[in-house]
Amino acid sequence: MTTREGSCLRQLPPTILQLESQGPPLMAAYVLRRLLVLIPLLWAVATITFFLMHAVPGGPFQGDKAMPPDLLARMNDKYGLNDNIGTQYINFLDNTIHGDLGISYATQQPVVKRIKDGFPATMQLGISAFIFAIVVGLVLGVLSAVNQNGFFDYVGVFIATIGAAIPSFVVALLLILLFSLKFHWFNVIGWQFGDYKSMTLPIVALGLLPAAYIARITRASMLEVLRQDYIRTAQAKGLKPLQIINRHALRNALVPVLTVAGPIFAGLITGSFIIEYTFAINGIGTAFVDAVELRDYGMIMGTVLLYAFAIAICNMLVDVSYGFVDPRIRY
What is the pTM of this model? Predict the structure, then answer.
């Protein structure tokens, strides 16, 4: 090791040097620790949600004015709603540990079955919207950065600003009015995977906001990378602009994008209930909206736990992916 290399290594933080020396086993230990953290995390989410639900006056069967008082009492007794809150909480934890999320009061079906039935549509919509957001966001961000203060930059910034300013449910209504009711290009109700007429509008409505967010982050990150010395060195060597962007600039600019990609992916999967409800998609989001309206405790708890688990896993995968994008990062 030369004197210059030694001085450079001494300037690095001790934690970086330690992580660099430990290699892949530390990655496995990191993933294991993150998985173990899921246990208290899910318990905390479940506990807070449980007591918040029961703190609201009323119950799942009290909204039905036609139900006689004696039948209401029998229904509450059947599902243990007449027990004190502590007993209900202990029973809930015990059932959840054994994989039983209870019965949906609205459909009289197991919550696990209702989640399984709606899971494919929700995942298909979320993944499709995520791919749309990544592709559109990266393309707009890169074009804007490469053509700073040019035509593509103004167009990209304009689209990103509009996409970030308009809520998704407003975008959904505008898309329905324009492309479905006026031009009759796409369907309004339902979701059929593989049918572009039923998929396009929900995907665009759900993915436009994160696409705008990714475009703005990509543009800012690319502009910073393009000003670095190694980019100027690559230009001086005579590399083509496309080679410089693909081999040097884009990869280093992806680290900030990855930081938000995990929460965005989790948000698209777990936060699609407005779009699902608007387009009458039979997914978990629609079931969650119905459960909130009907005070369906079991369905609410099952959906919230699923969403919390998805968000935690996505965040962990993003942290792990840093090491693949930037070789200097180790765990």
Answer: 0.78
